[in-house]
Amino acid sequence: MLIAAKLRAQLSYRVSFALDCLGQALTQAMEMIAILVLFGRVSALGGFAVREVLVMYAFASISFGLSELVIGDLDRLSRYIRSGDFDVLLMRPLGTLPQLMVADVQLRRLGRALTGLAVLGYALSTMDIDWTAPRAFLVVLTPITGTAIFASIWVAACSVTFWLVDSSELPNTLTYGSGMFTSYPITVFGGWLRKLLAFVVPGAFVSYYPTLAVLGRPDPLGAPGWVSWLSPVVALVAMTAAGWLWRFAVRHYRGTGS
Amino acid sequence: MIEVADLRREFTVASQAGRFRRTYRKVVAVDAVSFEIAAGESVGYVGPNGAGKSTTIKMLTGILVPSSGRVRVCGLDPARQRRELAARIGVVFGQRSQLWWDLPLAESFDLLREIYRVPRTEHAARLAECVELLDLAPFLATPVRQLSLGQRMRGEVTAALLHSPELLVLDEPTIGLDLESKERLREFLAELNVRRGTTLLLTTHDLDDIARLCRRLMVIDHGTVLADGPLDELRDEVSPERVLVVDLERPVADLDGLPGVVSARAEAGGLRHHLAFRRELTTAAKLIAEVAGRADVHDIAVVEPAIDDVVRRLYGRRRG
């Protein structure tokens, strides 16, 4: 209901909507070109061939695009807090997080997910994959678990805003950073950065491990095969943790009322 | 409807001390505030800026958690039962909007119906009533961002009433409105209070709001309640004098020595006299009779102390 109304509101600014979509498509194209240019120079990236990386990139794009759609106005939380509009959310008989999520559904953000879907279709159809039922199911499930993981990262990162109102750069770094990170095989990255972004922020479970499972490849880093199927569990844990952190942060806000 | 006992709220304020060090100090915004408001009352909550009005309102509505003390609104604890309470009270912030900026007003109302889960027929009836009384029909289809402030405020009040709240809290509802819009809003709220029995609690700087809407006044400053009581009683308490203005047919130099009169002033060459008297010493009727016995009276008026004068005197005093 709310979402439908929001969409109508967006479509009422037709020109700006069209320009937004165009902008999204251009950004997307640049990212793709970056990957293809890279493979013009090297034949493998972190031990993976171009199509394999494209699958990861596609999963990450779809998940990230959908998560941007789902998180709605959350990235504008600091504005809500500063203007006092957050108090308006607290006046209503609903949780604050769902209200922020549906407060703004940016249809143009669907662009990223749709191009991701196209890339996924292309990459998977031109590869020689031993299709089994669990693998097919995983292809469908991965964008959902990936979206859940990204959304959890957004929520957790934005919770910090309640303590540091001017911190909108921190959530951006964490979320867009994770977006970049998950587009490539984690083997490309080294040391502590990999550990942090792959397992603390569970970015590896957005695209890397599901891709290994779908392709039937063992992990070059030596993780046992069942780890590749863990994404749904990780997503659940991430959502729980993010929800808990959010509630804690809102309780802090109502305690200090900054 | 509202019970508040020993309510206290502190804030920690950081201030820069040196380049990296910060010092923190505690500021008490609300201190030992206690009051009760019964169902059906209409109470004005006034005080200078920074007196603690908004902080109190935020604690009553569950937005802020009290540092200590007890709050009950509609029998609920606002801090813990925020959502249950939200379904039973309506809140209007004069300087904030709970409508959706890009949507037509009517769609904002539809959304609120969903959010508050109001049955369709009840919602329609309630809305129809507000549309009629507040004359919303001409701009129901206009996006909220294009409404004038007066139109928007009427929309805000409607938005706060669609779920039939028992209590309506208004934080500076008439701020920035022109005289006609103010008057229309006051009329509507007064009706709501009398006819529906909706309890009203409003903060304001416009004392005409109080005079028109509130039978009871609470004055807060520096976080403590300085005065609380029926408007008439407070008026007698702080300014017990009233003024009888008499216009005479022929000038009289002075009207000294009238019983009960504490000060007298003549103007217009003795044609008009201002006689300040105390109610406990005489009545207006007796005084008029006395004056009429001494001079030919052309016209007569009794002037009550202005409400802003009353409130100014109340601000001036400190508790204890």
Automatic annotation (TrEMBL), chain A:
It holds the Pfam family ABC2_membrane_6. The chain crosses the membrane at residues 21-42, 54-72, 137-165, 186-209, 229-250. InterPro entries: ABC-2_transporter-like. Keywords: Membrane, Transmembrane, Transmembrane helix. This is ABC transporter permease. It comes from Solihabitans fulvus. The lineage of its organism: Bacteria, Bacillati, Actinomycetota, Actinomycetes, Pseudonocardiales.
TrEMBL record, chain B:
Residues 2-247 form the ABC transporter domain. SMART domains: AAA. The lineage of its organism: Bacteria, Bacillati, Actinomycetota, Actinomycetes, Pseudonocardiales. The keyword Lipid biosynthesis does not apply. One of its GO terms (biological process) is response to antibiotic. It is a peripheral membrane protein. The keyword ATP-binding applies. Gene3D superfamilies: P-loop containing nucleotide triphosphate hydrolases (3.40.50.300). This is ABC transporter ATP-binding protein. It holds the Pfam family ABC_tran. It is found in: Cell membrane. Keywords: Antibiotic resistance, ATP-binding, Nucleotide-binding, Transport. GO terms for molecular function: ATP binding; ATP hydrolysis activity. PROSITE patterns: ABC_TRANSPORTER_2 (PS50893). One of its GO terms (cellular component) is plasma membrane. InterPro entries: AAA+_ATPase (IPR003593), ABC_transporter-like_ATP-bd (IPR003439), ABC_transporter_ATP-binding (IPR050763), P-loop_NTPase (IPR027417). Its main location: membrane.
